[in-house]
Specification:
five-stranded antiparallel beta sheet; 30% helix; single chain; alpha+beta; 296 residues; four-stranded antiparallel beta sheet; globular; 11 strands; 2 domains
Length: 296
């Protein structure tokens, strides 16, 4: 079967065939490819347009050095521990430059392998006796060779040194996978909670107000109003940590997990979906955009 144009362009991007494009040109090209809309960088109005403009603004800011550290999934742990406490950090078991450096005999029966410099570089080991090392090596070594900056021109990714690390395997009350609580913050103020679930089977994404009222809208993935996600007992605590971690930053997403009613830090995301995820209805993105001041 012949591939469609979208697949062709995606492959071309992964192979670096668009790396030569100046950032502004690339952002306009990819914005149109992903959203079907023209990107207005001179007078950005929508949330996604503003994120594209912020990519160019952040690239010239001295704070970019800090933002790079805050994006590195290994280095950010010390930073967050100092902000909200080490008890909220998922323990790191080991750090390596190459997959073959890992001594699997010294790892526990269950663990999670991740890359520190991209999005999606995750392999879960639920039972070492059935863990497919060959497939894990193929995926993670491929990711280690990539510079995630070129996929969306997010400047904070450009200078991260790629590494592998293993984390303690964590499970919540679902006994399947951790639900991901992602809090959108603007100028240090939480505004909306996104909960991702079924990420490795049937990815869905529900949105909630800070009072835990279900929001009838979606961002890329389908929502499920009939799937009950109870208000976390520790929601207020989580929101307070989101305030602390987002203080002084125009916009950022602070991600957490909840295990046995304890909050654990996930990651910090400066550009949700790299600014290419579709909002439904469009009026919802208009409200979202109102929370983010236009970049300089």
């Amino acid at each position: 079967m012949l591939m469609n144009m979208y697949q062709f362009l995606s492959i071309a991007e992964r192979r670096g065939l668009f790396n030569w494009l100046p950032t502004e040109w690339f952002l306009k090209y990819k914005f149109f490819r992903c959203t079907g809309k023209k990107l207005n960088l001179d007078n950005p109005k929508t949330f996604n347009e503003k994120l594209q403009k912020y990519k160019m603004v952040y690239a010239t800011m001295p704070e970019l050095v800090d933002y790079t550290m805050m994006t590195d999934k290994i280095l950010v742990k010390d930073y967050v521990a100092k902000k909200i406490g080490a008890e909220h950090i998922i323990p790191t078991i080991g750090v390596w430059k190459h997959f073959d450096d890992i001594d699997f005999d010294r790892l526990p029966n269950q663990y999670v392998l991740k890359t520190n410099h991209d999005s999606g570089g995750v392999v879960i080991c639920r039972d070492r006796s059935s863990f497919n090392k060959t497939e894990a090596k193929r995926k993670l070594e491929k990711n280690l060779k990539l510079n995630f900056y070129w996929y969306g021109r997010e400047p904070q990714y450009k200078n991260i040194v790629p590494q592998l690390f293993a984390e303690k395997y964590m499970m919540d009350e679902t006994d399947q996978e951790l639900r991901d609580y992602k809090i959108f913050c603007f100028e240090g103020q939480p505004k909306l909670v996104q909960v991702d679930f079924g990420r490795f089977s049937n990815h869905r994404r529900n949105l909630y107000t800070l009072d835990w009222e279900y929001v009838h809208a979606s961002i890329k993935y389908p929502t499920d109003p009939f799937f009950e996600i109870k208000k976390p007992v520790c929601l207020d605590e989580m929101l307070e940590y989101a305030k602390i971690l987002s203080d002084g930053i125009p916009q950022i997403r602070t991600d957490f997990y909840v295990v046995n009613d304890r909050v654990y830090f996930g990651e910090l995301t400066f550009f949700h979906g790299s600014g290419y995820e579709l909002f439904s209805p469009e009026s919802f993105e208009t409200e979202f955009s109102s929370w983010l001041r236009a970049p300089i």
